Amino acid sequence: MCLCIPSSIVEVYPEQSSALVETLGVQRQVSTHLISEPLACGDHVLIHVGFAISKMDLDEAQENLAAYRQLIAEMDEDDVKGLLS
């Protein structure tokens, strides 16, 4: 099963159609090819298999992250590492 996870944009690389995002304290670079609107640092996006697939507002991102935190609290450490890698 694949899950999408909300992330906050830390840096935008328009020339590479990518961005550095932070998800629950973990940073990684993702593709922004699928989002046509401009992105900026501090924006929240939904990430799926390395692609930012849509922008989301802060309230929606916080609500989704709360659900992820609850899920993570019930998982063992190896499963959590796989979720965020």
Automatic annotation (TrEMBL):
UniProt GO MF annotations: carbon dioxide binding; iron ion binding
TM segment ranges: none
GO biological process: protein maturation
Coiled-coil portions: none
Xref: Pfam families: HupF_HypC
Family of this protein: Belongs to the HupF/HypC family.
UniProt protein name: Hydrogenase metallocenter (NiFe) assembly protein HypC
